[in-house]
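TASK: fixed-backbone design
INPUT:
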């Protein structure tokens, strides 16, 4: 099977899945089976691509060339493969979770949900496989539009307001800043191709390139860097499987992936290290890390707390990209995967608590671990991975982040990372401690509460196992990350 055919399959499988779901809208079992099978088949194709790809002989598939030198094209590189593997694996797992959640919660418009979900994965894969900035930008915009029906799924006034916030911030930043940055890059270089080592060195004064970097970073609103972060907590009105998609599989990861890809393949880490704006952006990322963590501590609503945790964790990756050192690239790339597994587990657990116990606030969770021990144990392990404690996958990326700040000789950012880890510990680990050890005010609190629906619980156990497996099987991921700077 040729590499070009694998590219095409990766893009067409989600679209065919969406079509199949539409045709089976009157048969819920067939609709959900097609969703699950589509996800499994996609991961099989992604794994086949990963095992057969030779980065010494990269393959480009040009889909369309509207203008000379400007094309819509697909090409795999190591960073894109990491993103593709993460999204490809977590789509079927999230689909499995969604089957249990959507049925147990009696959600309406489930066919529309699964269709929008599948098409969003198509856009995510297009972002991951983009060979140039033009392709990435179009896929980036499609992802915003395709996920909008998921954010507004409930159809309430609050959901519609959240949808406007979501659309307004993401489209304003991408069209106002990101598109301008892409056009400016084309005017300076005559190309938009992602190239190892970057394409901008020597093309303009450092001050000019610093301004261009600001446009790229602020234009990538999906990365939720303050002050362009409000769309993310607003989107928490969506069903929990959507929150999992937004925070782990697609939207936010598309944002930080874009920033990582621009820093490595458009600027190059040597150029990033010489730009004053990169230093100030790293400080802004540090501010976002700490302030979002402090806000998370103040939130009693569980999903809101996790949303601000995501904002903080995304800025770890932005900080890593802005340091201009090789260790930062390694750390940011690994954190895309490590955070994905941990955060999706946390959202899965939050949804399980909602469906089984009808609880949404942290203050309501005293003693719930006695009725939902597997869910709360999964929450604990995923929280410890976010904190960065072994033997969990997040410890590797957190350690590399600390090393990167030392390589960049930034004591301030080193302190920020250490302080933020303590904050992570307080606002996340508090929840399973409450669940297992606190005494509920009502001694009959746990009556009728049980574990999540079996499909959802299986998904929780899979992603929790992923947090552990990534610690012990980090070498393949490390070898892949090493390819990024070759």
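OUTPUT:
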């Amino acid at each position: 099977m040729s590499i070009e055919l694998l590219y095409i399959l990766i893009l067409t499988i989600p679209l065919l899945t969406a079509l199949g779901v539409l045709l089976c809208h009157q048969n819920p079992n067939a609709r959900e089976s097609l969703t699950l099978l589509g996800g499994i088949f996609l991961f099989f194709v992604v794994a086949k691509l990963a095992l057969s790809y030779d980065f010494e002989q990269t393959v480009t598939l040009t889909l369309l060339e509207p203008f000379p030198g400007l094309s819509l094209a697909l090409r795999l590189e190591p960073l894109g493969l990491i993103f593709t593997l993460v999204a490809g694996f977590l789509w079927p797992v999230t689909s499995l979770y969604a089957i249990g959640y959507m049925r147990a919660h009696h959600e309406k418009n489930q066919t529309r949900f699964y269709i929008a979900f599948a098409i969003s994965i198509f856009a995510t894969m297009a972002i991951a496989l983009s060979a140039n900035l033009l392709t990435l930008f179009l896929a980036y915009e499609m992802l915003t539009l395709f996920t909008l029906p998921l954010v507004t799924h409930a159809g309430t006034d609050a959901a519609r307001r959240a949808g406007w916030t979501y659309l307004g911030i993401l489209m304003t930043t991408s069209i106002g800043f990101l598109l301008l940055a892409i056009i400016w890059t084309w005017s300076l270089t005559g190309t938009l191709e992602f190239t190892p080592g970057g394409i901008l060195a020597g093309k303009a004064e450092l001050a000019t390139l610093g301004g261009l970097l600001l446009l790229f970073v602020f234009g990538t609103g999906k990365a939720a860097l303050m002050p362009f972060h409000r769309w993310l907590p607003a989107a928490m009105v969506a069903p929990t499987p959507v929150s999992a998609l937004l925070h782990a599989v697609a939207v936010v990861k598309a944002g930080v992936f874009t920033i990582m890809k621009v820093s490595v393949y458009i600027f190059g880490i040597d150029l990033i290290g010489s730009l004053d704006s990169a230093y100030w952006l790293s400080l802004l990322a540090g501010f976002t890390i700490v302030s979002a963590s402090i806000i998370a501590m103040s939130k009693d609503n569980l999903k809101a707390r996790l949303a601000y945790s995501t904002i903080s964790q995304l800025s770890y990756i932005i900080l890593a990209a802005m340091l201009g050192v090789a260790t930062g690239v390694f750390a940011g790339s690994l954190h895309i995967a490590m955070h994905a597994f941990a955060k999706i587990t946390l959202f899965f657990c939050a949804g399980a608590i909602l469906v089984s116990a009808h609880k949404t606030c942290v203050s309501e969770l005293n003693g719930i671990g006695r009725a939902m021990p597997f869910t709360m144990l999964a929450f604990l392990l995923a929280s410890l991975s976010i904190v960065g404690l072994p033997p969990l996958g997040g410890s590797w990326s957190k350690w590399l982040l600390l090393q990167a700040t030392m390589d960049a000789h930034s004591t301030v950012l080193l302190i920020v990372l250490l302080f933020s880890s303590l904050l992570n510990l307080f606002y996340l680990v508090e929840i399973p401690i409450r669940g297992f050890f606190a005494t509920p005010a009502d001694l009959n609190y746990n009556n009728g509460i049980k574990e999540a629906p079996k499909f959802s619980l299986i998904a929780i156990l899979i992603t929790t196992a992923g947090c552990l497996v990534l610690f012990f099987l980090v070498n393949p991921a490390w070898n892949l990350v090493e390819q990024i700077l070759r």
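COMMENT: The longest strand covers residues 60-67.
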